[in-house]
Amino acid sequence: MLVSVIVPCFNESAVIDETWKTLSKVMGEDAGRRNYDYELIFVDDGSSDDTLARLKRAAHACSQIRYISFSRNFGKESAMIAGLEYAGGDCVVIMDADLQHPPQMIPEMITYYQEGYDQVIAKRNRKGDKKRATLMARLYYKVVNHIVDVKMVDGVGDFRLLSRKAVNALLSMREYNRFSKGLFSWIGFKEKILEYENQQRAAGETKWSFKRLLSYGIDGLISFNNNCVS
Ligand code: UDP
Ligand code: MG
Questions:
Q1: Is the pTM above the cut of 0.85?
Q2: Is the pLDDT of residue 110 over 70?
Q3: What is the β-pairing status of strands 65-69 and 37-44?
Q4: CA 23, 182, 140, 12 torsion: positive or negative?
Q5: Ligand 1 centre from 114 Cα, in Å?
Q6: Considering only Cβ atoms within 10 Å of each terminal Cβ, which end of the chain, N or C, has fewer?
Q7: Cβ-contact 2, 35 below 8 angstroms
Q8: Which of 30, 163, 32 is nearest to 92 (CA)?
């Protein structure tokens, strides 16, 4: 069995070394114990800091690490799809570069995959988040779930394991402007949700400005809504 882990990275210089070292340790130990192969695919989304240089050094130091480098910043959605296209795994895990998605959960995700689940989804609570952000999110999901044709769950994001079957289903959808939160839900398959404690970024800053968040929210509303065209 080959497990691929995809990590989109944009200006993550402050944290990327800690991330690849932690991820390598967790995966190395688990792969040794359970006898599987793994590859760690870092996608540099046009960083302007030295993230790419650090990834090159990491790939040199660790034979399971590979990297993809974009010519400019295309956004996390593009980084994820490039990773999915490149990944050769029987199952694929997608996680953030800032350790907000604890790598320590991956072994448990793999266990559920081996039990037959096609999507093992990590769901965070909102502990430590600003009250206003939590309320806005709650309202957003209430409104969106009334309007769109897929179910979107607060706290559920891109941190998940996908079976090869699920990856191929995602890759068969050639949307240009992708809204993965909706696509993951749209493809279906047997799902398992694992809850985890909200984590703050290990270092560096969020890439989400209010403008970017608003535009993402609007994408979510229109991408999976047939009512707009009828
Ligand atoms: N990211 C990316 N391209 C972008 C913005 C973000 O690849 O244009 C990556 C980023 O490096 C991180 C993940 O997407 O690994 C989530 O970004 P961030 O932590 O800023 O989002 P938040 O956790 O604050 O929602
Ligand atoms: Mg983050």
A1: yes
A2: yes
A3: parallel
A4: positive
A5: 29
A6: C
A7: no
A8: 163
